[in-house]
Amino acid sequence: MVPEAEQATMVVDDVGPRNVGIEVSTEERNVRLTGTVVVDEGAKLFRLYSKSSMYAFCVDPVGRIEHLYWGKALPPTDELTYLSFSQGPAKLQRAAVAKKYLRAKPSATALVSNDASGSDTERGNDLADSDSSMDGGPPNCSERAPSPQRVESALAEDDSSAGAHRDTINALGINNLQDLLDAGSIFRAQIDTSTNIKCPLPWENPRTFLGEWAGAATFGKPAKLLEFGEGNTGDYRSPSFELQFHDGGRVCPFRYRSHRVIPGKPSMKNANGTLPELHTNAKDATTVVVTLVIEKSFLECDLVYTVFSDIDAIARRVVLRNTTIHPVLVEKLMSATVDFHTFDSFFLTHLSGSWANERGIVSKELSMGRVCIESCRGTSSHQHNPFAALSAGQPREEDGEVYGMALVYSGNFVAEADMCENGRVRLQMGINPTNFEWELQPNEIFESPECVLVFSDSGLTGMSHQFHNLFRNHLFPKQFQDTVCPVLINTWEAMYFDTTYANVMSLAKRAAKSGVEMLVVDDGWFGARDDATSSLGDWYVNNEKLPEGLAMLAKNINDLGMHFGLWVEPELVSQKSRLYQAHPDWILHKPDIDKDSADGDFVLDLTRTDVQKYLIECMSSIFESANIEYVKWDMNSHITEIYSDHVAPSAQGKVYHQYCMGLYRVLRTLTSRFPRIRFETCCGGGGRFDAGMLHYSPQIWTSDNTDATSRLFIQHGTSLLYPPSCISAHISSVPNHQTLRISSFKYRFLVSLFGSLGLELNITTIEEEECAELSMYLQLYKALSPIIHEGDFYRLWNPVEQKQRCAWMSYHQGRGEAVVAAFLLTSDPGHYLPRLRLKGLDPAATYQVEEIIPSTAAHNVQTGRIEACPAPIYKLGKKSITASGRTLMNAGLPIHLIYDGDTAAFYIRDSARKM
Ligand code: GLA
């Protein structure tokens, strides 16, 4: 890892006058580069510096945007154009010269120039000469005097290899470095000749070798790494966009026209509606907008990159502007495209699963062909998450380079990884082109959702830290950024649809005594909602269940010292509802086809502004009707039989995206109208857990599966991208309602501790003793959650790889405090667990490690039976130990977890810090 000091600042000793964009001048010798864009105007080369990494691209000779590099930060003074695969006459000369040298005796003065001096005609002659004068003298090309110092020092540095070849070199009459290099060509040529390959490789110039000479002939167009890959022009990789013009033409050669560098991040207000996006200020970020144009048609496009100073992240989006006089059909527009040069092997990591088993980590090796991770369900889905990461080789938790992408979008998405024949991979993400078509009228703009690119050179952990910090600092609603959600009790698993005043109040009274801070009334409080088959859309209080109404209920809850929250599911309407009877045309469906409504629900047509308006006003009146401080916004359906009666038949390809935009409009209006209300979004559990939703709700209901062991897997995968604070994690009752599994209260608490903790159980039925235990846990949560929510999260033991065990840790560097928990899923009697090695600590600091919840069971050594113990059992033999960070990270903690569901948890504190 790059040391902290180096990460923060990179000193530029000599920034040439051509570097503009951040006002870098030669006088400014020490420039903070993080969060800036350095543009070399001469070479049209762009370097985007985030915290400690860099992303670079340039304009190629024909005006395409060629990707050069993404990785650790490189000095802005380094020449990067040699990474380009651009074709140009200079390379032909290089190849020809090398060829000419096949049998020529190198001379100390006849040196080949690497620059583009000399006319094209001369180069052409060189090429012709080379064929006819293979035995001749040195080539007739521009000469460059060798620098004696360069030659000396290079030879001195490489003394051993020079020594090994001394005889040969002497025999060839080699006097300096350039001769040595040229001799290299000859050695290569000889080898190649012996294997009947006629052309020598000019290996000393990778640009020549890879790009114009071998590259063009062997690889074709996919050889070039592009930022915005066009189709239909001989490049058969999956394109970044697909457009169709009024005449049916699909060839779209977008070429560079101009660029501008802007402090901060321009907001996305140009879009057709407003998309959720990362927020920042002028000091934190810089944006570069590269404008491309299709010359004859004048269609314009902006590639927008925002680089952040505090995180190794870039936000990337694309804006299309129809400046032509005809409509243009947009069939595909990826938010970000990154082309990777080859690695020995590429692995794609993503999050996949199902209802009740969301976001498991999947890593697979790529081979030639295209892999798509996608949703076509109208929501980002339980099955796949809008996230993908590429790594060189199998991704490792702590080391290795990982390149992550996440889409700030909640609808149909696709992440494509396309390995082409030369082994290079294109990774891109955006709105799913399936069922998507957008006719862009003259003067209209289409803006893609934002895609976040994150680089880590410290494996998956480093990537998670970048995403966590980015979402916490730049995505969550600002007013909730630094707050912990109150501990809540949700009525769902406590009473399902039986949300009577009596039931709710008795739950509330018992919860208040245990230290619960908020009560959320879930499904069942409205219309005639006694089961899932009716009343969605009838958002008025069920007077039979709640005769006192919401205002009084909220007041009574407030009087117990608790906040009040409410569940709603506004996007759906039940067939059995007054709303549907009044507006049967408000749903997404094809009128002449029977709508399949398995649950008796339909999805409202949020493409319609009247429906959006209705929802905004209807929800506003509920939110105003009582002291509601929390809203759980649910959506228990995927979208099927997509069709909007309100949209022209030829424009039905817009409906999925317009639905999403309509939802965002409703959420944006309500969250700004009610800034005090904390939203939790939900979709049949965790079916819309994405960065788009996090823009409006600082936490998301993670899964309908509340079983603690299942949650270990779900939360473990979710943590790859999403910080613990946004992972709603509720302690539920046992036997668990989804699995019938029984686990201890402590185990269930520790799983929920690493999320936004709540209760999903009927607290009125638990024993007094358990209530006391619960109070203690809630106090612990309140004390420890700031460490977990603001700290760096580490996956110490992976339950998928290690099968029987899992361990997590959060370390808050600023406070010097950490929380660690380890879980045994399946015991293996007689076999010891490995020591639990901690991560992220300061090796030189001394830490006090305290076990926070001692065990109550141990082996009876007489019988071998595990029995309850009268005295507390500490896994380390005593309540606390003191050790250096170095010891804790290298020797680890020898914790003996002995039975299924056994756990241990520690609070760790830098002893030198004041409490
Ligand atoms: C979804 C949610 C649950 C609950 C029910 C109510 O399934 O995920 O938590 O709110 O809806 O119908």
TrEMBL record:
Broadest EC class assigned to this enzyme: hydrolase
GO molecular function: alpha-galactosidase activity
InterPro entries linked to this entry: Aldolase_TIM (IPR013785), Alpga-gal_N_sf (IPR038417), Alpha-glycosidase_related (IPR050985), GH (IPR017853), Glyco_hydro_27/36_CS (IPR000111), Glyco_hydro_36 (IPR002252), Glyco_hydro_36_C (IPR031705), Glyco_hydro_36_N (IPR031704)
Reactions mediated catalytically: Hydrolysis of terminal, non-reducing alpha-D-galactose residues in alpha-D-galactosides, including galactose oligosaccharides, galactomannans and galactolipids
Coiled coil regions in record: none
Domain Glycosyl hydrolase family 36 C-terminal as annotated: residue spans: 806-905
Single biological process term from Gene Ontology: carbohydrate catabolic process
Region (Disordered): 111-162
Segments forming domain Glycosyl hydrolase family 36 N-terminal: 226-441
Pfam families: Glyco_hydro_36C, Glyco_hydro_36N, Melibiase
EC number(s) reported in the record: 3.2.1.22
Organism the protein comes from: Picocystis salinarum
Keywords associated with the record: Glycosidase, Hydrolase
Name under which the protein is recorded: alpha-galactosidase
